[in-house]
Every structure is written in C-alpha cells, then in structure tokens.
DNA sequence: ATGAATGAAAC
DNA sequence: GTTTCATTCAT
C-alpha cells in the first residue's frame, strides 16, 4: 500500500506531454514522495497532504508542505459572480447555475469599467496578497517539468514541487530553504503579519489560510495524534468558536492573532483548516481504512474547518471511512448493514458504492453515529462531546457573526437568525442592493469552505437536503409566480427556509450546515468576507436597463453585424452546444398549437436572459423579416453571433472549446444533425455551412422546413437553436392557420 | 464530475 | 492561441 502510491508517480512525472497537468497530477505528488502511506495517490492537492503528513510525524519532509496547493485567487469576474449569483438566482429561480453564470456574464459585460473597478481592484489586491503569501505560486502547476521559475524546483525532485505551494516552494534563493525543515510557517506568518502589507485583508486571509493549512495542520495533527485525537478535536472547535466573537473587535489584528496563535503552541487549536477532502482521497484513505488514523484525521479536519455541522460531517466521514464517500447516495433503499464492509471500494465501483452509502445514511438517521468499526468509536467520542456545544455555539455564533461581520449598513437585512427567514423574504423582495445573498453564502464564508465545500455539498445533496429542498422550493415558487413576475421572493432566504419544518431533520440539517459555515470561519475569513461584502452589488434592474440600452445601442450600430457574419461564414465558426442547456432546463416543448405568444412565454421562462435581448432588438427584426430568425440567433451566439448575438451583451466572447463544439451536418437524408468530434471543425471550415441551416451572409438562419422542424422538436437531442427554430416555426405556422 | 462565464497565467 | 483553474451549485 504505501509503496503503491509512488508507483503512480513515475508516470506523471515521466511523461510530460507538454500539456498542462491535469487534475491527475495534482493528486499525485504529496504522498508519493513521502511514502505515501495508503493514500498512495492522493487525489487532490489539499487535504491529502495533511493527512499523510500526520501519519508521518516524525519528520516532515519538505514535501509535506508542498502538498498543499493553494487555490487561485479569484479574478474580478469571479468575485462579481460570487457577489451577484444569488441575485440572479432570485430573479430566475429556475435557472441552474450555468444559466445564472451566463446572466452574470451578461451583467458583467454591461458593467461600466468604473463599476467594475472595485471588483478588479479587489481581485488585484487579492492576487497580490496571495502571491505574497505564496511566493512561488504557479497558477498552473507545471507537470513534472519545472517551469522556468526558480521557485519551483528542487533539483532533487522536480516533481515534488510541482504544486508550488509557497511555503515549500519558497524560493531557494531566499530564506526559504530552511523553512521546509524547521518550520516553514514562521516565515510565512511573518510575511503576512507585516503591518504594512496588512492592508489587504485578502492577504491576511490568504496568509492565514495558507499557513494554517500547511504547517499548522500538520502540527496539529501530530499533536492530536499523540494526545488522542478526539479530545483535541473538540477542543479545537470550541476554542475557535469562542475566539470568533472576541476577535471581531480588531480585524486588522486578525492576522496577527493568527500568527500568535500559531506560535503559541497552544497546541492545537488554531483555527480552521479548510480543506476539502476529495473523494478520491477518501477512497484511498479507505483503502487503508484499517488504519484508524485516517478516519480520525478526517474527522478532525472537518471539525476545525468550516464544517461544524456534525451530522453531515459524520455522514461524510462515515462514507469516507468506508471509502464510499464519493458516490451519490440515494437514500431510498437500504441494504443490509453488513454490506458496509464489503464495500471498500478502492476503485470507484458505482453501483456498489451506492449501496454502501445508503447504508450509511440510514445508520445515521437512525443512530446518528453508526459508523463502522474503528471509525465508529472515534466518531462517537467526538460527537458526544462536541455536538452539544458546537450546536449551541453555532446558532449563537451564527447570528452574532453575521451582525458583526456584516455590519455594513446595507447588509442589515441579511442579519437574521436562521430561524425566521420568512419575514425577511417579504421585505426582501427586490432589494437587490442589500445583498441578502451575501448572507447565506458569503456570510458562511462560503469561500473558504471551498475546500470543504465539495464534500459538504455532496453530503448535503446526498442526504437530500440540498437538492431536494431547493428543487421543491423552486418548483413551488414557480408555480405561484411564474407567469406574473420574477420578483421572486424566493431568495436565499429560502435556503434558510428551514422553516419548512423544524421537525424535519433534513431541513434542520441544512440550515445548520449553513450556519456552521459561518461560524466555522476564522477571523481572516471574516475579514475577507467583509471586504467582499463591501463590494457593490448591483440590482438586477440595473442590468436590465443596461442590457436594454446596450442592445439598442448596438442595434443602431448594426454595421458590425455584417462583419461578424462574414467572419462566421469564413469558417471560423464554432458553435456552442446549447443542447445541454436546453436539456438542463427540463425543457418541454410547447404544444405545437401554441401561438407565438406562448412561444415567447416559453422562451422567456426558459431563457430569461435571452428573452430580454430578444425582446428588445430581435423583435423588430422579425417584424421586418418574415422569418423569425431572431430567437434562433440568440440561442446561438457564437455562430451567428451576428445579429441578435450582437445585442447580447457579454458572454460569447470566448470561443467554445473544441470539445464542446457541436457541429451541424447534413446527413444523407438531408436532415441536419449535430456532429461531434474534433474533426468537425475542420470539416466546417472546409465546407462552410452557411448553406446549411446556420447562417447566411446576413447572419440569419434559414429556417428549417416545417417537417424538419417538427421532427426536431420531437427530439430534444438536437442543438437547442434548432429546436427553438423549429419551435418557432411550428408555432408560427400554427398561428397562421388559426 | 460537468458545465457556464471571464480572466490570469502558463504553455 | 490554447489550456488550467479560480467561483457556484443543479444536474
């Protein structure tokens, strides 16, 4: 087992294709170098390393430090997304994230530079801080080959450095060298601690995060291990909690505090480590499942981290222990309990795993901590001690935190106790500016959670709390509002909405999980949150207006269209595959008899943002032209980006990846069908499809024949734009008949 | 795990 | 130019 991990390494390192390393690479390095215990291959950067290290305790090889890989800082757009996504969701509850992202992109596009400024500034600050904290950080870790940067590599092992965490990767030239052996931490801390630089909370955050994650964690783990983890864990969580409140007074000092804490050695408590455990990891750990340590570690992490929510955590842990974690569990069935053992999946066998998961879930429900074997025991311990406290604390903190953190004038609305979301919902109705959204998400320091988010999220989903709840809400709301307005009260509140049923464990859990996140945060995170929250949040209305304005404006300057069209025609055309989008929307084709108006409604409901544009610009076009290519065009930005696309603000700048491109090909029978494959591009280039359904010089689609249209309508497999076109066609025809 | 967007960085 | 990966979270 131990050895195995290593075996993997060679391939990665050895073969450098020249391409950037993929995720795989990430997984690789930490253990390998060391000894890779059982984990042999770690999946992801973060967590594993820690785990492993722990095991190692004696010596930490530098690699340990490396293992952890810091996450890239968010860019302006991402910050914007994070800040506004909830708003978008409020407006369009139906939309899934992808759709929301599109809208966000549109919004972003229409924002004036000035308005973007804050975001870009923050992004920059964030980045700078990050880089300071992580001197040698590479965005894209080089594979085996070190890039040019000196920071990276150690001669001895090129691969080891790959990940480039600052701490270890630190530059050789500077002091870094010693860091690895002794304690890399100190340096980092200091750097961060530097008052002059402290200005950016982001920096603080990063620094703190980073430092903690790497070294601190290791240390903690070690300590814990020695001491007996369960207790430690508890302690940690408590301490962190207690500190939170007190910390608020001085934000700037947060960093310092962290540093202090660390150095005190206190022992373990330092704040929260936020790492997410990847499934793979889990799986691996599982392999080694026999080893109690692994489980423990996991548990610990969670506690510290932002995942206070014990229940979910436990379940996750359990899953991890089993090695099943990754799978999505369906709760419905339960298999025999014994099954648990049987499923130790080293690999991911889906079916089996599922079963296991189910078992787990069930167990939990029934006995909360029904774990298996060794894991079980430990878990219990932790739980007993922790649960009560943590829970109470959580709640408490939850509100407290919010207030202190959110303090911002505008945030007030958000500060509500989790318990009563409803009220807010009412008031909230359109107050986009306030940002309730920040509340749930931000407040929770979602961001930091990123690390654990994946796991947590999965857990939630698996438990059915998240998805189902959300879906239900959506649905319900939809039913009510749907036609009328999209104001949608449905907002983030709904998330909190636990109201649904206090009794219901699921709900509770859910709400809890949120709270937990908030509470779990460290000060640093809080700071970050603050800053983040201070970013302007623009109301949807604003964007709508802008969008319209832009559209109009663009419309006036139609000249560009031509260009685009020609461009497309040249063969550069790459078509995005919208079919997925459509399908995602649980698209239901309107009844053929639907009149145009209905069609519009339909479109609007499914593609709100598109509709927006369409409304404005396209419609007119359609009037003049007999054919309604407008909607189609809208659907297919890249291609006929021409007309309508132009109006669309933003997005579509990027070309679709080759892999994602769907090409239309006329088949022998004359029908059009999507073709996949890389070759398609070439084909397209060679044979311009303008003649086909795509677009003609004017940038308009030729309409499919009615027959074709119908056929298409039936099968949803076809690219969205075709489907829409077909729909439109059908609808139009029907209308005419009437 | 995927994808949807933008953007920064590394190729 | 292309590819990764940052964010979120429904699927």
UniProtKB/TrEMBL annotation:
- What this protein is called in its record is HMG box transcription factor BBX
Acidic residues: bias regions: 39-65
Region (Disordered), start-end ranges:
1-22, 36-69, 144-181, 326-349, 374-451, 484-522, 668-693
Which residue numbers delimit the HMG box domain?
A: 70-138
Localization terms from the record: Nucleus
List the source organism.
Answer: Mastacembelus armatus (zig-zag eel)
Residue spans binding DNA:
70-138
* Gene Ontology CC, one term: nucleus
